Amino acid sequence: MTSRIVDIPKIFRCDFTGAYFDKCIKCESDLMRGDRPYIIEKALKPYGSYDSYSTLFEYAMCMNCAESMKTMMSKDSMAKLMEFFAQNMDLNKHRHQMNEAYPLQAYKWIENCIVSGKAVSEVSECQIYAACVGDQLVFSEFPYMVAGSVLDQMVELLSAETKDELDGFKDEYVDGPSEFQDLLQSGPKVFI
User: Fold this and answer.
1) What are phi and psi of 6, to 5 degrees?
2) CB burial of residue 48 (10 Å; 0-12, 13-18, 19+)
3) Which residues pair with 131 in a beta bridge?
4) What is the CB neighbour count within 10 angstroms for residue 149?
5) How far is 89 from 105, CA to CA, in rounded Å?
6) What domain of life is recorded for the organism (predicted)?
7) 3-state secondary structure at position 180
8) Closest Cα to residue 58, out of 8, 5, 1?
9) Cα separation of 107 and 126, whole Å?
10) pLDDT tens digit string along 23-65?
């Protein structure tokens, strides 16, 4: 079977340094040792494509911390999000289509919103996600992109308790440019 990994492309590297994310934002474990899978999440304001964009926030989080973050969600919020995913996303279909059409081409996998189908050129804000190990991007249900309008719909499903928890995470770990703080009010969507 063909390898399902590639070097992490530029879009999923730290925009501030240009380097790989080397620490988990939460536990600060060394992600470059290659023994700990992790997720990269970036919120972007693209200007027509990924050739030109502003980064609203970005970070890497090890899978252990990402899994523990799910406990921050109320049961009601989790149930509503799972129903939303079941009705609007088919990760297996997406993975199959991308593997057939664009194997190992990360930029193609994030070209369109996984929920709405909108192209990056049609959105004013989006979040992109990748699963990685060490300096390698792993193709699985990741990578993918979610349009800001879809994220807004998802935030509406969250309980006040869950929103407060996400705001606490944002306040402690994620800093975006001051002009974009209103876009970060609901915190990062690490659970997608």
Assistant:
1) -145, 160
2) exposed
3) 39, 138
4) 16
5) 21
6) Bacteria
7) helix
8) 8
9) 14
10) 999 999 999 998 999 999 999 999 999 999 999 999 999 999 9
